[in-house]
Amino acid sequence: MAFRRFGKSLLYGLPLGITFLDCVGYVARVDGTSMQPALNPVAEERDYVFLLRWGIHNSVVERGDIISLISPKDPGQKIIKRVVGMQGDVVSTLGYKHEIVRVPDGHCWVEGDHTGYSLDSNTFGPVALGLMSARAVAIVWPPERWRILKNELPRRRRPVQVAKANYYN
């Protein structure tokens, strides 16, 4: 009887759990110092964030959002960065091969908050929007760091020129 109830719960619960993780979101550990001070402000401690997949490709990403994406350099690795520019924006770069870059259609410009300690668009250029996998919405661990992540873009990193018609913001 108990086995039958367990089997039935598993039969219903497993697809619901997989659907939630695949469509809504999941919790992930943030490694590295590239997003300091917003994430992992103390190098020895790790933040865990809730990554929201819901609507990631349907106009919910804006400049200043922290996103998870597949690394353009290593497709087996996921990275977490802040969106600095959207398609059509003109951004000033920090060590990229051109000082000023217009972000091509279908792309965004991402950077780590810890300038100089981040492999980001200043290294690999504009990133295809299709590589975005989720938007970080909250720090969920450790408990003393619980908070909703604000959409903040430092004044010095704002685009030189914002595109008039943006599909994703």
TrEMBL record:
InterPro entries: IMP2 (IPR037730), LexA/Signal_pep-like_sf (IPR036286), Pept_S26A_signal_pept_1 (IPR000223), Peptidase_S26 (IPR019533)
UniProt main location, coarse: mitochondrion
Presence of the UniProt keyword Transmembrane helix in the record: yes
Bilayer topology annotation: Single-pass membrane protein
UniProt superkingdom: Eukaryota
Pfam families: Peptidase_S26 (PF10502)
Active site, UniProt feature: 34, 81
One Gene Ontology term, aspect cellular component: mitochondrial inner membrane peptidase complex
UniProt keyword terms in alphabetical order: Hydrolase, Membrane, Mitochondrion, Mitochondrion inner membrane, Protease, Transmembrane, Transmembrane helix
Domain spans labelled Peptidase S26: 18-92
Record-level GO BP terms: protein processing involved in protein targeting to mitochondrion; signal peptide processing
UniProt subcellular location: Mitochondrion inner membrane
SUPFAM superfamilies assigned to the protein according to its UniProt record, in alphabetical order: LexA/Signal peptidase
Gene Ontology molecular function: serine-type endopeptidase activity
PANTHER family hit by this protein: MITOCHONDRIAL INNER MEMBRANE PROTEASE SUBUNIT 2
Family recorded in the similarity comment: Belongs to the peptidase S26 family. IMP2 subfamily.
Self-association state and partner proteins as the record states: Heterodimer of 2 subunits, IMMPL1 and IMMPL2.
Protein name: Mitochondrial inner membrane protease subunit 2
Organism for this UniProt entry: Drosophila hydei
Organismal lineage: Eukaryota, Metazoa, Ecdysozoa, Arthropoda, Hexapoda
